[in-house]
Structure formats: C-alpha cells, structure tokens
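Q: what does this look like with pyridoxal-5'-phosphate bound?
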Amino acid sequence: MAKLIGAIPVSVLPEDGTFYPRLQDIEERVGSYTRAVIINSPNNPSGAMYSEQFIADIVEFCEKRGLYLIMDDIYHRLVFDGRRPINCYDYAKDLSENSKLVVINGVSKQYAMTGFRIGWAVANKRLIEVMTNIQGHQTHGPSALLQRAAIAAINGVQSSVESLRVTLENNRNVLVERLESFDGVKVHKPDGTFYCFADFSYYDKDSTRLANHLLKKVLVVTVPGVEFGMEGYLRISFCGGIKDITEGIERMKWALDPNSPNELYIGDRKLIRDWT
Ligand SMILES: Cc1ncc(COP(=O)(O)O)c(C=O)c1O
C-alpha cells in the first residue's frame, strides 16, 4: 500500500531478534525522507502487543520529529493474559488540529466481521478530508446493509467481544501447548490477535514450499512467513474451533515428524506418508 502511493516502505526488524521493536530500532531507520511511522499492535502476524512504554515513546518521538504516526489498532480488544487495550492519545501532547496521529480500526476483528471491510480512521479534520477525497474515488461504497450491521455491532451489547476474546485466549493456549510438543518448532506465545507466528525452519527453510506441502498433503492452510518478510516461519490462525485447531495440529505433526505412522485417516480418506 505504501508503494501504491509512491512511498518507500522501510521495515524495522528488532535487533534483539524478538518481535518487539525498541524505539532505538525505529530511530535508526528514520531519515530525512521519512514521513510516517506505521505501528500495528497487537500485531499481525506475530501476535505481539507492544508495551505501554513503547507506545508512549513512539508517540513522543513522532511528535518531536513531526512525523505522522499511523496506529493500526484493529486487534486492540483481542488481547490476553490480563492485558488492556492501549490508547495512544493518552500519551499525545498535541491534540490540536495539527495532530499527526492517525488511529485505524474496524469491525472485522473485534466483532468477527471479517469480509465486511468496514473500518475507520481517527485523525485531524483536514487530514480526514484529504483521505476522503482519495478514498471516495477508490474504495468508497460499502453496501448500506453492511454499514447498518457495523452500526449495530458498535452500538450493540459488547459482551460478544469479551466472549470472543476469552475463546481466542483459550484457543491460543491449546495451540501453543500443542506446537511446543513439536521437536523443531520455536513458538512465541501471542499476546493478542488470533495468529501464532512460529519458526518452522527446522523442517524446511523455504516457508512457501512448507506451506504448500501442508496444504497438499494434509489439507492444512498456513501462511508462509516469507510473505511477511520472515522466511522459515509459518502463520497459523487460531480463530476456528478447538476441534479444528487440534485436528490441524495433529495433521501437521503427522506430516512433519519422520517417525509418524505410515497412515492417517481424514474422515474416510486414507493418507499414505510417501515422503520423508
Ligand atoms: C493488521 C490489520 N489491519 C487491518 C486489517 C483490515 O481488516 P479489514 O479489511 O477486514 O477491515 C487487517 C486484516 O487482516 C489486519 O490484519
């Protein structure tokens, strides 16, 4: 999307090898051409949620440097282990019409309304007007029906969000526990979202080949890490039911573990292990 508007995206990989960037990692990549910093926390694909201190620091840094700070908060309510959503405006000094803070959110994750493609941006009035000028001619026009449904979700009883959150936390626990039983998988426990981004390079350093193998042989869908700039990783979604998650993991294990039995049944379908 950055390239689409003629910008040059620059990724920031935390130097310490974790999924948590430090302010100095970002500072080092900011130059005189930098116009905006994009932060997505909780993060797709890693599931990492950045600390309150980090958010406070990045808000302060961008304000000082006159940079736009675009916060993609779409998973903000889907957080685990007692974490609370972080509101970056709590740390902004400039809440005037010149604020360069842009917060993005939508209905797709918190209300399980993926596919509705209804979201919003919170920013200063002039910036929103400019965004509307462009968006009005590009992607404007979500159907009235979907807009009504989104309004109902936002204004309706919010207990569904908590129940989704609890379900996802439980799913996460089951998925992580099962993945940790693999010999070769390095797992980072997600703090939020519904994704686990795990290092499968022990089995295959080529994540596209590995994802294709799992899809073809045991009908399990994962997203190759290379699509997110991290070769050797796979993104696994845990937004399904527990049964689907445990079944999916069992199949992956069967496909990857050379000591697995020769046969596996998926319903009536008999799979034969014809690879090493
Ligand atoms: C980080 C992030 N931001 C925004 C979106 C956009 O969601 P949607 O287009 O469903 O509103 C997604 C969806 O996958 C996402 O992962």
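The radius of gyration is 21 Å. The beta strands are 36-40, 68-72, 101-106, 119-122, 195-199, 223-224, 233-237, 263-266, 269-272.
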